[in-house]
Structure formats: structure tokens, C-alpha cells
Design brief:
The protein is mainly alpha-helical. The protein is built from 17 helices and no strands.
Length: about 400
């Protein structure tokens, strides 16, 4: 690799980390305030969490059109459109608050889903930035570090701006969400990622249905779905369960803060662990930690049980999701990346959307203990498939 190529790689990764830090701050704003604003604007208490669920649904539905745009016009143009949509979504949501219009506010959070889908694909852009397969896991891990910064920026923006416009509480936070997306635009404009594969390469690409039937894709997608889906489901249910067990709202918020920090802090070394021990082993370790979080939650309802389970869940998500993303890079050729990544994210974030709609009802039906017990068989299934895949891969290697 030449000096110029190395410099371009560092530049692209730095820009992606910064863009991730700004773009990743939007979901905490929407998730922390969406229910409160919904409660304030909606005449139906049951619909108060609808804005948050619609954001998750908008993200899931946007993965496919966003990927199509990336494939046709390149990642930079798609990311610029995503950030512009992030600006628009914040303005529409704030306008909905100022007009006391619940439907308009929901439209704003739904539009934010397209920006969210683009931000989620920054980790795939990192693999394009480095090129070499042996260094892709480290690049993914580096970009995910932006999530650690976002975990600080998002909640702080809420604290600083939620009462900045006394006549319209919370509107200031959504104007700030728009401002963060606006700040991301020049960073994304400066990206210089490799162009989409030429049409001649694309013509030789396999059909998506053919790729989706391969064991490699099925394993990577399932590991991603289980890692992210369970994390989102349990993170959504945990604050309600904590308050229901007599803990304060502040204690529940602190538990979520530690959980989010645990989600992203391991990214400092996850890439190196994958390079040292392999994608399958680190993905499996993440799933084991998610199972351990469920086991700890079943041991009691004290504050230490909740907080400890949330920290384990965060670290487990980091290993499991970054490992699954790295596994996905094995499934496709360069001309197939966009559609394979889109299908994977549609499955992952579609699951998250379903979890967002159903977590409250399931918590009410089976309780916190039932939720944690019910996720263990899903983790066991993916662990069994990872073990089989590792054994098969080892058996395929020639003896030395």
C-alpha cells in the first residue's frame, strides 16, 4: 500500500467515525423523548410510544432503497441524502411539537429512519475503505467507536435543549437533532470511497435468492438478528421492568446509560480480538455473554441484577454484532455487497422494529423473567450453528 493510499484510508475512516458520532446521536434523542412527546400530544395513552416504534419501522423499511441508491450512485451520495433527510426529520418533528400535532411528529420520527439506515451502513463503508479482508473487522470496530461518542452526545443534547424553548417543551431537542445531521453533511461530502463496481462486474453477480440460501449468509444474518434483536428487545423492556419492581426512573436511566457505554466501549479492541481469535469465536463469545445477561437477570430483581445484566448485554451485543458483520463479508463478491448488506440489515432492523412494537405487551404477559428465559433457546441455536460452521471450516482445511 502506498503512502497516498494509507493516507486516504485513514482520512475516510476518520470521517466515518465522526459521521457515526453525529448520526448515531439521533436515535437516543428520539428514543428518550419520543414516548414523552407522544404522551403529551396523543389523546390515546396506548399510542404514546408509537413515534419510537415508527422510527424503528422507518429504519427497517429504508434499508433496501438506501442500499439500491448506494449501488446505483455510490455511498457518498446516499449518505448525503440520508443526512439531508436527518435534517428534515428533526425540523418536521419539532414543527409537530410546536403545532401540537401528533401525526406530524410521528412523520418526523419515521423520516429519521432513512438517516438511521444510512448511519447503520457506515460500518460496511469501513470495509470498502480498507479493502484488505484481513483488516476489515478492525475497520468495522473503529467506526463503531463513533457510537460511544454518540451515546454521550445524544443524552447530553436532550439535557441541554429539552427546555430551551419554554413554550414548546422538547422541540429544542429535535431542532438540535436536525443541527447534528447538518454538521454531518460536510464530513460526508469529503468522503472519497471506492466507486460502485462497474456494470460488467455486476452482470456476473449471483441472484440475491441464491446468496440468501448459502449457509454462510444464513449464519451471519441469524447471528446479527439474534444479537441485535435480543439486545433491542431487552433494552426496551428493562426500564419498564425496573420501575415495575420498585426502582426509580433515575436508576433505570442510569442502567441504560451503562448499557450503552458497554455496547460501544469494547470497540477499542474488538477488531484485534477478531483478528487474533477469528470471527466465529468472537461472535460466539458475544452470544454467550448475552445468555449470561439473561441468566443473571433470572437470579433476582435487585438493582445489581438489572445493571449487571444490562452491562453484560451491551458487551455481548458488541462482540456478537461486530462479529456477525465481519462474517457477512465472507458471503459476497464486491458486486454483490450492496444487496447482501441491504438484505441483512432489513432482517436485523425489521426484527428490531417488531421487538419495539411488542416488548411492552410481552413484558406485561410473561414478565421480565419470562422474557429472559425465552431468549436462551435462540442463543443456544445460533451457538450450535456457529460450532458446526467452525467444525466444518476446520475440516475443510488441508492437513499440514
Amino acid at each position: 500500500m502506498t503512502t497516498d493510499e494509507r493516507s486516504l484510508e485513514r482520512r475516510n475512516l476518520t470521517l466515518l467515525i465522526l459521521a457515526q458520532s453525529l448520526g448515531g446521536a439521533s436515535p437516543p434523542i428520539i428514543i428518550s423523548l419520543g414516548g414523552l412527546v407522544g404522551q403529551m400530544l396523543s389523546s390515546t395513552p396506548a399510542a404514546s410510544t408509537l413515534p419510537v416504534s415508527l422510527y424503528q419501522l422507518g429504519l427497517a423499511l429504508s434499508t433496501l432503497p438506501a442500499a439500491w441508491l448506494m449501488h446505483r450512485a455510490g455511498r457518498r451520495l446516499a449518505y448525503l441524502l440520508g443526512a439531508a433527510m436527518g435534517v428534515l426529520s428533526g425540523l418536521v418533528a419539532a414543527w409537530g411539537i410546536s403545532r401540537s400535532d401528533f401525526v406530524l411528529f410521528c412523520l418526523g420520527t419515521t423520516l429519521a429512519g432513512f438517516y438511521g439506515a444510512c448511519v447503520q451502513s457506515y460500518r460496511f463503508a469501513a470495509t470498502d475503505a480498507v479493502g484488505e479482508p484481513s483488516r476489515q473487522a478492525g475497520a468495522i470496530s473503529l467506526v463503531m467507536l463513533g457510537g460511544l461518542v454518540a451515546a454521550v452526545i445524544g443524552p447530553q443534547v436532550v439535557i441541554w435543549t429539552r427546555d430551551s424553548l419554554p413554550a414548546t417543551p422538547f422541540a429544542g431537542s429535535f431542532y438540535s437533532q436536525a443541527a447534528l445531521a447538518l454538521l454531518a453533511l460536510p464530513l460526508l461530502l469529503a468522503l472519497r470511497l471506492p466507486p460502485p463496481p462497474p456494470r460488467s462486474h455486476a452482470e456476473g453477480a449471483r441472484a440475491l435468492s441464491q446468496i440468501a440460501r448459502t449457509p454462510q449468509f444464513a449464519l451471519a444474518a441469524l447471528a446479527g438478528v439474534v444479537s441485535y434483536g435480543l439486545m433491542a428487545f431487552l433494552m426496551t423492556a428493562a426500564p419498564m421492568a425496573m420501575v415495575g419492581c420498585g426502582h426509580s426512573v433515575g436508576e433505570a436511566a442510569l442502567g441504560i446509560q451503562w448499557h450503552v457505554l458497554a455496547m460501544f466501549a469494547p470497540s477499542f479492541f474488538t477488531g484485534r480480538l477478531i483478528a487474533r481469535f477469528g470471527k466465529r469465536l468472537i461472535t460466539a463469545l458475544g452470544l454467550v455473554l448475552i445468555a449470561a445477561s439473561g441468566a443473571l437477570a433470572l437470579m433476582g430483581l435487585e438493582l445489581t441484577h438489572f445493571w449487571g445484566a444490562l452491562v453484560l448485554l451491551g458487551v455481548g451485543w458488541n462482540f456478537g454484532f461486530i462479529g456477525a458483520t465481519a462474517l457477512l463479508t465472507e458471503c459476497c463478491r464486491p458486486a454483490e455487497r450492496a444487496k447482501v448488506q441491504a438484505l441483512n440489515d432489513f432482517l436485523v432492523f425489521g426484527t428490531v422494529a417488531v421487538a419495539s412494537f411488542g416488548s411492552g405487551q410481552l413484558l406485561h404477559t410473561v414478565g421480565w423473567g419470562g422474557i429472559n428465559a425465552g431468549m436462551l433457546p435462540m442463543v443456544a441455536l445460533v451457538l450450535a450453528l456457529l460450532t458446526w460452521s467452525a467444525w466444518r471450516q476446520r475440516g475443510a482445511q488441508p492437513a499440514v
